Amino acid sequence: MSKVKLGNHIKSYAGGTPSRGNMDYYRNGTIPWVKSGEVCRKYITSVEEKITEEAVQGSSAKWFPENSVLVALYGATAGQVSITKIKGTSNQAVLSVNGLDDFDNEYLYYLLTHSTPELLVKVQGSGQPNLSKKIIDELQVELKELAEQKKIAEILTSVDKVIELTEIEIEKLKNLKKGMMQDLLTKGIRHTKFKDTPIGKIPESWECSQIKDLIKNGFIEKVQDGNHGGAYPRVSDFTEKGIPFVSAKNLHEHGYVKFNECPKLPESYLPKLRIGFGKPGDVIFAHNATVGPTAYVPNSGQDFIVSTSTTLYRSNSEKLDNYYLYASLLSPLFQTQISKVMGQTTRNQVPITAQKEMYLTVPPLNEQNEINNAVKAILGTLISKEEKLQKLVSLKKGLMQDLLTGKVRVKV
């Protein structure tokens, strides 16, 4: 199948921005006006700003029909594509694209989405600062029969719907996890009698202590960050194999360390280090630059070294279960205290001295284990859903490559 120049088979034009100096162009406006930042999802059904008919007449803003394909030409969303489900106008950073008799707009949306990397490469090689109508019009594409285009769009849309539903499920699970952990770490399980503490009411049989007191009373054995100054590893010190060097960026949001992404230090470097040696069962909290992510290294895990951006926690398992400690640092109770500290400084960090002033709740060990099981269950479900989402995204990517390039043909 031969390729054609896209511009010969579409109608495309960018919009404009009515003068901000004339408030009559915006006051009581009824005409949707799309900005490039809003071209970030498949369908656009509403917009932030509306303009007046006078604004359209007095500027280069242009009407586009419902179901138009919109492409962000520059800005944070450059290259992203949407379909508008409303009739409206746009600014100059948005290109409206409509297939003429040869292209179905739903198919055109997927075609341009798939072509985004190619278009952005062409921008870099053209000497132009942004995507443009010319670059998009000159795109070489295969021209399929309309019936095949519609079938391809139908297949990809069905995958998109499953992806969307999975994303909704994940968001609901995240909200459920947050609410459940707040309840578990402050109300516990099956309690009817509560007492007042500095962080609010907790079960009568629980303790509420600052981290410094948990250290003093033997509940927590170690709280330390990595090596500062001359002992801090340089890029040249890292090797292909060795002990993982863990920083904040290596902590997954669902509580595990991405050891495969960690740089490695050789055994021969370890004598240069004074602190920061981690082992299975430890908990890691990100306290600098990226603040808040928390991870638990299971007992079946491996030794590691923490960087200065993370705090290493080690509990006395006879008093405080290590997984419960992880859940405590991840909980809204602890994270809220972190946010308050962050709000009192312009520096994006929560040093160990500040962490030690924070409160944790400590139930009896048997209830710690019950809480652990509940947290593990919700996290397990969440991770499973996210793995499903990754597979769906990968499936869609493969389908787009096969169907849009003609590698695999669709029978109609």
Description:
By secondary structure, this protein is α+β, with helices and mostly antiparallel strands. It has three domains: 3-142, Adenine-n6-DNA-methyltransferase TaqI, Chain A, domain 2 (Alpha-Beta Complex); 144-199 and 366-412, Orthogonal Bundle (Helix Hairpins); 207-362, Adenine-n6-DNA-methyltransferase TaqI, Chain A, domain 2 (Alpha-Beta Complex). It is built from nine helices and 23 strands. The protein has helices spanning 53-57, 105-126, 133-137, 146-186, 211-216, 322-330, 332-343, 352-355, 365-405, and strands at 3-5, 10-14, 31-34, 43-44, 49-51, 63-64, 69-72, 81-84, 88-90, 94-99, 140-142, 194-197, 200-203, 207-210, 220-224, 243-246, 264-265, 277-278, 283-288, 290-296, 304-306, 310-315, 359-362. Strands 2-10-7-8-4 form a five-stranded mixed sheet, covered by helices on one side. The protein has a four-stranded mixed sheet with strand order 5-3-9-6. It is elongated. Residues 4-174, 203-391 form the Type I restriction modification DNA specificity domain.
